[in-house]
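Whiteboard transcription, Tuesday session. T.W. wrote the structure tokens on the left side:
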């Protein structure tokens, strides 16, 4: 049965909370509002986020700022080549006093899990996250343990050309709702960063603006946004086009279509709307789809990446008509 769309008061609460979170994170990660907006959209969509770029551009800082803006449990994992799956999920320890095994949970048992340099671990260890990210549970010695809600993995990785890195398996990349490239800040933003962090770390002064229970309610509110049949068909058309494109040897999965729609709902919710527009889908198409695709040999040799292919697909797939009428939007500042 279809749920009722969110009320005005629910949307107002969501917009105001996201504005406070955006302002707090923006004090730490300055000059990149679009990066912060997509991060919060993934949070509202209850997805997982992959941050990819060279060292030192603020990937871990963004992840820590997001975690500090919420009063919740935070797990931290430093991925290394010798990391074992049990270092993530936890182990059973035998207690001689009781002659019983006691489960000692690992760092994945948190609301937000920050994974540093995920592609420095072996594929076996990376794969330990697959069940956690898809089913929100971890199985240890045949027993499944539920993870707290909301559950969000924010992982960072260096480009695969850098020394000591392993490429993420396709199955793992498909679990991440979006991949973002942080990039270098503008000259003005970098000058402001020097002034701000010359004598102190702004992360130290960050205070939570909400808690985990409130975020879980906002996630439920976001999922109840209305998506017209035409918008859903537009999502499917984009995903189908990736499977038929001659420049790709692997297109997007059905999971990608689901996550693209959910992420678009996150953007629409932050704009104060109770429905999704095709523009929301277009805005998230590249970060949600590009990292799941594999280019053909010809595309690789010509230097044409999956990001460019997704942009071309978005440009040529016609928009659905008619487009649903919009409420007065209250965009995040």
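and on the right, the sequence the group agreed on:
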């Amino acid at each position: 049965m279809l749920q009722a769309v969110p009320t005005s008061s629910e949307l107002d609460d969501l917009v105001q909370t996201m504005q406070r979170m955006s302002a707090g994170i923006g004090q730490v990660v300055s000059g990149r509002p679009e990066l912060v907006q997509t991060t919060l959209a993934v949070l509202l969509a209850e997805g997982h986020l992959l941050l990819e770029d060279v060292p030192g551009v603020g990937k871990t800082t963004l992840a820590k700022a997001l975690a500090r803006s919420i009063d919740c449990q935070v797990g931290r994992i430093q991925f290394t080549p010798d990391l074992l799956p049990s270092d993530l999920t936890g182990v059973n320890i035998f207690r001689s006093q009781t002659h019983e095994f006691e489960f000692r949970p690992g760092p994945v048992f948190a609301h937000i899990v920050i994974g540093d340099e995920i592609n420095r671990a072996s594929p076996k260890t990376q794969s330990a996250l697959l069940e956690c990210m898809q089913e929100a549970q971890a199985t240890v010695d045949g027993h499944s343990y539920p993870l707290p809600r909301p559950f969000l993995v924010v992982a960072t990785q260096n480009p695969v050309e850098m020394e000591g890195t392993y490429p993420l398996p396709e199955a793992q990349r498909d679990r991440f709702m979006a991949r973002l490239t942080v990039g270098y800040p503008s000259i003005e933003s970098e000058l402001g960063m020097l002034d701000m962090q010359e004598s102190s770390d702004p992360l130290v002064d960050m205070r939570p603006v909400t808690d985990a229970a409130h975020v879980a309610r906002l996630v439920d509110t976001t999922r109840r946004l209305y998506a017209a049949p035409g918008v859903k068909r537009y999502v499917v058309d984009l995903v189908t086009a990736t499977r038929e494109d001659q420049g790709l040897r692997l297109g997007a999965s059905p999971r990608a279509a689901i996550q693209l729609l959910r992420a678009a709902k996150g953007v629409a919710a932050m704009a104060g709307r109770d429905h999704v527009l095709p523009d929301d889908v277009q805005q998230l198409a590249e970060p949600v789809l590009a990292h799941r695709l594999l280019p053909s040999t010809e595309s690789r040799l010509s230097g044409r990446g999956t990001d460019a292919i997704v942009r071309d697909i978005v440009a040529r797939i016609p928009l659905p008509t008619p487009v649903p009428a919009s409420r007065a939007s209250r965009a995040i500042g």
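Someone added at the bottom: The mean pLDDT is 87.
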